[in-house]
Design brief:
The structure is a homodimer.
Chain A: H1 2-31, H2 38-56, H3 59-73, H4 75-80, H5 83-100, H6 104-127, H7 130-150, H8 166-174, H9 180-202, H10 218-232, E1 239-243, E2 249-253, E3 256-261, H11 268-286, H12 303-317, H13 321-334, H14 336-339, H15 344-351, H16 365-384, H17 392-404, H18 435-454, H19 458-463, H20 468-477, H21 487-495, H22 502-516
Parallel strand pairs in A: 1-3
Antiparallel strand pairs in A: 2-3
């Protein structure tokens, strides 16, 4: 049994290295790849994905899992294995089951198509040209549907999963065990209460944000971001920051976790809050304990749990009053001309301005989840086939009007680049990913309730820029588990409850009632 | 036969993509990898190298080569294949023969050790700490010796290659068919004539280089280098420039050829001439014709032929009077304060100052080859075992005194960082590579003789910044062959002669006689 376990660990290790080699090529594609290198890069990625897949699904993996599985079905055998190895087997088994159902040529073809689609998206976005992206989007939808079918979801597998749609199969990649129906229930409450709050806020005077409408040179933004990362505890010997069209975090090695942001000279906050958000992801990845770091257990419990960490840092910490009391002087020193006559309180109010925007990643906390619910509704219909991809730009506009109250004839320019083309996700075939962001808000605030009861003096620590106790709490409570627990198990272990909308809504309603004097 | 050929092309293609994925990870390691990511990166590279090797040496490759080999042994069969496919088979056979003799675990272990050694070298160089690098150097020597042994060189294979040393086996990687004895004959003449020239020059007054002893901010150097690359015809949609400890060129894809340079605010020429040198390599890589680009034939004929291209651009073009007549105004516009009162002629004279230096890559044209001959002598003795690696720093100093007339007590600081630790090559196990640089000088000037007889007006074209006819000549004469010809065959096809020292020595003696008024 020990020998079998060691062999399985070797398979896991090689798979992880191959995945991280692919991650390095993808990171490069988003940051430094010369324009004409895109096509061959897609071929290289397809080959690497194919090899990783092929090596994971060898009959030997199946045999080893079977051997160890019959042991784990036996209570005595089970107890003979350390808990961590039982968790390792659970994750390997899920990964193997998922992979073995996909034919190798399908995996290669999907990887190749994703590479090309992503490149086409980046160009279509630059040119505001949805038509150029449409064939790739259609291909991505086909691949996603086929993938869910292979996994046994959807009508064709009606006998096995009669209640589960193709879309449920995709959701399950990111949030195991949470079908669209369950998400729909949570999102309905969320949408109604957020829309009501938004309505009230619209009647109130807005904070002064005039001092942010200046030029903040990119070099100075980049220099501040280096300080910001260090302030947040990002270990710059174990990771780095670069610029890309779409901010992201990627793990190229246990000690090589990279984040990206993007810069606009006229928008200080966009680049800055992306750095805080991505640092939240990176701190999670950097924080897995040593005993997990050489296994597949060094991973987030789910995408929504990962987002709970990034959005916690971005919003609960990064948009809080004490955070800017602590950090504002540093920011002002980087931009003395622009911010010399401003204050921490003014900045706190400005970064919490509620003003529905066309761009998801620039959205305020109140309207953010509405962007997600919009995408959830649309991708559900794209995958079910109810919505034809060529109709997407029109329907996007319609939903944007309905959910966010934004019209194409406001003084903001409305175009596809700032609409349906704004996100990278669908270009990579990542349908089912978006709900994680809003679910992350819910997880995050439910965790925060517990955190605040454990560390009542949290606010004064943040104001002093002292994050040690917060890290320790995050490490001991969340990071330490890696993906040993399913998301619902982790939530229950930390908070003793199931996923709820109320902690998030109470936080939002409380914060903005005070800010806008509702 | 057609089916076999297609299968062999598929094997070649996958091998190339895996090599280029490795090249991407190595490029990243030299440019952007966070310090603590080094160890796992070495593991990832070892895995990729191992997979590439394993897939190349499958029994199927042997079977396919055998099948096609028996055909190519038959004259009728031979003629039935297009010439390009026969060349493809020659290169694949050589690659397969080389690879199949190395055990897979040796290849993985070597790749892992190289990754660690390179990282240790970079740190040792920063810290001027040869002792920290010594164990890695010893390991690299062992791996190199073992490699040559596996290939059948050296004493243990005396029956087969009685006249060929282990070092010949390593030389053969870079310069097929040229043993140390042959190189030794050329290098002896070279050393004597260059030493004599150096002696004469030492008695002459030096050109004014005071105007170069100013501060040239790195950002401005980087901006000029972008213009310089474009001026030289480097297609920036098919490649890019970054900074690294040691300048290099690497091919990450047929349309993704990257160069690096390094910057010193007090030394404008170092970064600039590295860019010209590496662009020479890159133009060769970018210039292979379309029909070769999806095969292993899209490669340099040998390392020395590659160096003939880089050193041609760096010296024959980049250190010529007409070149600076054309480019000086652009350089002056980038550095108006520093160069506003200077001239093209002054710069031409300054970039050709003959002043032996401790650093090979900063050496002038006259002393450069002496740096190489020094390394050739030392690595020959390291590989034969005559010279113990721990003695290297002392012997390096001794040879530096003898060959270059430089003492450790000159006003230049002499230390191992600027001595034996200055080059990356040995840290990567690349013994046998150095001679290519000096051989490249010889090839380059032999090609140049022919070029000048074909384009008599070359100098006025260069002065006008018009490189089109030069490119066309290089493409039609050299690039077009890729590695279809062995280096000696290519040289003979272009010049009708074997490798000689005279074209290079006549160029050098003529140029410096004029410059120094000898």
């Amino acid at each position: 049994m020990k020998a079998a376990l060691e062999k399985l660990h070797a398979i896991d290790r090689e798979y992880r290295y191959l995945e991280r080699a692919s991650a390095a090529l993808q990171w490069d594609q988003e940051t430094y790849l010369p324009p004409k290198g895109v096509e061959e890069r897609a071929e290289q990625l397809a080959l690497l994905e194919g090899i990783a897949h092929e090596r994971l699904i060898t009959p030997e993996t199946g045999r080893l899992l079977g051997e160890l599985g019959s042991v784990s079905a036996n209570p005595r055998g089970d107890e003979s294995l350390p808990a961590i190895e039982r968790d390792f087997l659970r994750v390997m088994r899920r990964r193997y089951d998922r992979a073995v159902k996909l034919p190798a040529d399908f995996v290669s073809a999907a990887a190749r198509a994703e590479g090309l689609s992503q490149a086409a998206w980046a160009q279509a976005r630059r040119n505001n040209d949805f038509a150029a992206f449409l064939p790739h989007l259609t291909t991505m939808i086909d691949f996603a549907r086929k993938k869910a079918e292979y996994w046994g979801f959807g009508d064709r597998a009606a006998q096995r999963n009669s209640a589960q749609s193709l879309y449920d199969g995709l959701l399950d990649i990111y949030e195991p065990g949470m079908p669209a129906s369950e998400i729909g229930v949570l999102f309905t409450v969320l949408r109604d209460r957020l829309a009501a709050l938004l309505k009230k806020i619209k009647l109130c005077p807005q904070p002064d944000t005039g001092f942010l409408k200046q030029t903040f040179p990119i070099e100075a933004q980049a220099a501040f971001n280096q300080k910001l990362m260090a302030y947040l505890g990002f270990d710059q010997e174990r990771g780095r920051l670069d610029a890309s069209a779409h901010p992201f975090t990627t793990t190229l090695g246990a000690d090589d976790i990279r984040i990206t942001t993007r810069y606009f000279p006229g928008n200080l906050l966009s680049g800055l809050f992306s750095v805080i958000h991505e640092s939240g992801h990176a701190l999670y990845e950097m924080g897995f304990p040593a005993e997990l770091r050489r296994t597949c257990l060094a991973d987030g419990a789910s995408m929504a749990i990962h987002e709970s960490q990034s959005r916690f840092w971005e919003n609960v910490i990064g948009r809080s009053r004490p955070f800017w009391q602590g950090l504002f002087p540093t920011l002002r020193d980087c931009f003395p001309e622009q911010l010399g006559r401003s204050s921490a309180e003014a900045l706190y109010r400005a970064v919490n301005e509620v003003k529905p925007s066309l761009i998801r990643v620039d959205a305020d906390e109140v309207s953010y989840s509405l962007h997600i619910i919009l995408r959830f509704e649309l991708e559900k219909r794209l995958i079910s086939g109810e919505l034809a991809p060529e109709k997407l730009p029109a329907v996007w506009r319609e939903y944007t009007r309905e959910y966010l109250g934004l019209e194409s004839d406001t003084n903001q320019r409305f175009n596809d680049a700032d609409g349906v083309l704004q996100d990278i996700h669908w270009s990579m075939g990542s349908f089912g990913y978006f709900p994680s962001y809003a679910l992350g808000n819910l997880y995050g605030l439910q965790f925060t309730q517990k955190l605040k009861s454990d560390i009542p003096e949290l606010e004064s620590l943040i104001a002093a820029g002292k994050f040690e106790r917060l890290y320790t709490w995050l490490k001991d409570t969340i990071y330490c588990w890696g993906c040993r627990l399913e998301p619902a198990e982790l939530l229950f272990k930390v908070t003793g409850a199931q996923l709820q909308v109320n902690p998030f809504l109470e936080y939002i309603e409380g914060k903005y009632t005070e800010l806008y004097g509702l």
